């Protein structure tokens, strides 16, 4: 058990759905038993009044500790506060004062000894009550003016202090400048009433001043001249706190100590009776309640302080002496003496958890048992080692298969896919599955294509569009409804000459089949949206004619390459990258300015001699607004940049597909072209698509697409290269892409095998982020065996080609 945890001595759960607050708990010998042992009085906002006499031998159950409950009464009104004191004239007995929203009742609690096993009986009798004309907030009691017994002072919600001397009403006074009620306490040493006003200052009013201030009998506007000739009510002294107070307390255990404790929202104050501050403690948590109590050291005071982290802290002035963990947030805390134990901490939560606890720890009677030491059995250890080695050998032999020798592919049963957002409809399907069979991990990787119906729905054909692409074939026109049967049901054209696809993002792509020629036109208002439809159309043509047994089917693209349309996507993506860099620079500047202003303000605040701020606070607010506006703009630009990169990938895929159809490239050449134009899966602030693509295209232009073998050898022999970064513009990139397409159109062959024929020592640089060092390569002697590696390192040599 933790040492820093409150030890439960007795606890109870007070009903269900009831609410409690700071004034709902008090302790005292309310039944006047004469033993000096306290009883716990709890009242709830639901009007339920309970009195407990806790005992250590009381067992809790589902219905609560019934044996400790002396009295439970349901009153007609909500209970705001309960107090125990001498509230009846000509009597030294203690009575119970119960404050309701519109009434204050004084009760006597009496017990009758029982003659049977059920125990004593307790009764609650009403002595007198005060019906109030105003809704009340809280109350305090004391010997106001030196009278015998305890008088009551009740504060209303509109700022009136109503004084009652036992069963008679004395007078009422309105507090000046009142807005909201605050905590209220009586100081018997100065015969004053203390409260915290809405001006966030502690105010002290002498009882004598309140009694003679006849002008405060009615609420007056402070801006108007008084209508009567009476005395105005003014506080004896004030102390500015700068924050709202949660509670006030004037300890009465020692007359030598003249202290007033104020619990604020962030600070704890201790003041003398003349408003001078003794000490102040800045709190690093949100307090909920506190209670000063006597200290064994002269001149100091101990405090119990609860906070919203379920902690109960013990301070000696400003020094933390102990910390105990509770199971709830306390809203009220008291100290009580019971027959078995003295100084018990009584705490109450807002939902009715009443706990009597003490701090420290219980003695532990557990002793660690002795462990019988035995010598190791080497034969048994050797047998276990051989068994484990046999398992390892069997697992190594069965690597590549699933459990029981079954192929790994049979272990994959189902696959759950999620359709990506419409802007990401060209999702490259693939998944990895990590399996574990017989303790040996396996990895299965597969690629697949998503159905087109997941990405788009049939629509009506569009007549006018911005971008058009024509695909030629060597076979007669086919019915588009037969090629796309899942869209033929809802198609408006029953002849099969036109078909329209509307993607989930709203873009529409139309496919038109010529009736007289062997051509198919794909058109749309967005250039990049046509890639998926063109790719799907070509694939389905291959499947359709292969089923018909046509072996010489060919498809081609005869029109000019739409490079200008493609370059629009490139420029749009580049401009967003430039904007992102500009936002980053501006944010850095404003952040530096913001921190500089903060340092200057902190220097002014720490200066012992106050100096004017010289509008630094206004400049701080303006800079903060600029930082927030720039951050929001940068976030919006980042989202647009992600969307632009996805669209650029779609446009690049379409350009690669058109180049493949135009020149009839092989799958290996298409793969090289895709790796060149799509070197990155996503953009990063350190490395973007423009510089990576420019380096890859430049490498192709200096290697397999070069005009002479001498340029190939020169490109391979180049060492190092500049660090990739954001270019100034896209003119060079567009020029290189256009030149690459021109050389491919003139018969250039995309291959990496020629690099293996050049026996020169090269050093390559990876397409990594700027600042990372490249890795050196060795002498290339292999040909087809290292084709995979040559391709990867060829991407690194693109840096040299871009210099």
Automatic annotation (TrEMBL):
GO terms for biological process: cilium assembly. It comes from Cyclopterus lumpus (Lumpsucker). Residues 560-663 form the PTHB1 hairpin domain. One of its GO terms (cellular component) is membrane. Residues 451-558 form the PTHB1 platform domain. Residues 764-803 are annotated as: Disordered. This is Bardet-Biedl syndrome 9. Residues 778-796 have a biased composition (Basic and acidic residues). Residues 665-744 form the PTHB1 C-terminal helix bundle domain. Residues 1-363 form the PTHB1 N-terminal domain.
